[in-house]
Amino acid sequence: MSDFYSNNTNNGDNGSSTNESTNTNQTNGSYSYKKDEINQGESYYQWSPYDDGRRNKKAKKSSGFGAKLGKTAAIALVFGLVAGLAFQSVVVVSSKFFKEETPQVAQTQESSSNSSSTGKLSSAATASTTSSTVTTDVSSIVENVLPAIVQVTNAGLKEYMTFFGTVQQPTTSAGSGIIVSQDEDNIYIATNNHVVSGAETLTITFNDGEAVEGTIKGTDSSCDLAVVSVAIKDIKEDTLSEIKVATLGDSDATVVGEAAIVIGNAMGYGTSVTNGIISAKDREVSITDDDGNVVTNSLLQTNAAVNPGNSGGALLNAKGEVIGIVSAKLAEESVEGMGYAIPISYAWNIIQQMVDNDVVSELEASYLGIAGRDITSEMSEQYNIPVGVYVAQVVAGSGAEAAGIETEDVITSFNGRKVTSVNTLNNIMKYLAAGSTVEVTVAKADNDYQEETIEVTLTHKIESVQ
Prior knowledge:
With 466 residues, the protein is an alpha+beta fold. It has three domains: 2-39 and 248-356, Trypsin-like serine proteases (Thrombin, subunit H), CATH 2.40.10; 144-242, Beta Barrel (Thrombin, subunit H); 366-460, PDZ domain (Pdz3 Domain), CATH 2.30.42. The chain is built from twelve helices and 23 strands. It has helices at 2-21, 65-85, 87-101, 103-110, 117-136, 139-145, 193-196, 237-242, 344-356, 377-383, 399-403, 422-429; strands at 24-27, 30-33, 38-39, 149-162, 165-182, 186-191, 199-205, 211-220, 225-231, 259-264, 272-288, 294-302, 314-316, 322-330, 339-343, 366-367, 370-375, 388-394, 410-414, 417-418, 437-444, 450-457, 459-460. The strands form four sheets. Strands 10-11-12-15-14-13 form a six-stranded antiparallel barrel. A six-stranded antiparallel barrel has the order 4-5-6-9-8-7. Strands 17, 18, 19, 20, 21 and 22 form a six-stranded antiparallel β-sheet that branches. A hairpin with a 5-residue loop joins strand 7 and strand 8 (211-220). Helix 3 (87-101) packs parallel to helix 5 and helix 4 runs antiparallel to helix 5. It is globular and about 60 Å long.
């Protein structure tokens, strides 16, 4: 295993450089993108339609007696066909028209059972009507959900390296948020970590246009989630009476092809709505955050338009339930309709922890007692060990040593949450005080990496033994 440990760093570095040198990297259903290919809401761009090169071309005209004679013959032939086929030809033409206008319906029709021609056309017409109702008229859903959606404006400072050294410049970015909880003193808004990252001040704008300052309650960079609180005493009564807590759905029950709606602060222009379908589930998408950490999430994919500023907004089902928190889109000229959202069934436990708990102070901070490295999916396949945190060192006297965690083990779950990186582990532990006892799932190196769950009592943070 010493060879593995030395190769681990190389493989990790190689994986990082691969991501930055290619546009996309697909391995076993996972997708890895460069940061500049992922639109995360902190910048804006101007888009203009491309010229396909045919705009200035003119159609050639036929002239002369031969052409006229040909047209006359064609008209006569068409007239004869119309007289012979009568109503049936009208149905076929209508079918072709709907195929051009609604390609989803055309695909459904082509993959249906081997019924008669007339039966297939009737089914397509019915499907067209149903699809139109579900995917185009979402006004009642939107009206009900809008009071739970907010705009998030982040005013901060960004550092730039110049010839004269490091320079700080003020920046402003826009994102979205969802009201997910309320108590006697505060309302709580779920959003993305990258939406609030680096904020000096956060401004929350409600659906009626009222703007109030918000406070970051908690963040988790390992899954790109954050919670912002707003004091109820700072909100006007008229605005407070209109605010709603969003209804959360079950993203695990979502099926590919069902209707989807995205609501958020697109381009920072204010709340807007787009719609489409759920294109895919469990898409593993990896990006590098501002701190250099690789963030990998298993996301919902939708073809509903996602634009800068939509980050932190809501992905809804046809019932108006939140099934995802919009996180990113693939921004590449050759790609359309690939937006991603964090599934709410996964996100909710993390959000609730941030709502219910505060980050512990440095004096109360807990310590597990290991030095670890990330095991990515690529490393897992290469070395046939689980994805998680590889234990490179165990600190003497720590909770990890007392619980029987050993070097070369792999931590796969911590306090009920799947662990995919050291960053994930750190984000979980910052809410746990020293003395807390947690369940840890460990793949044991001395047992062919079979998993076992043990209890670990966390100690106070101490310096690791060199």
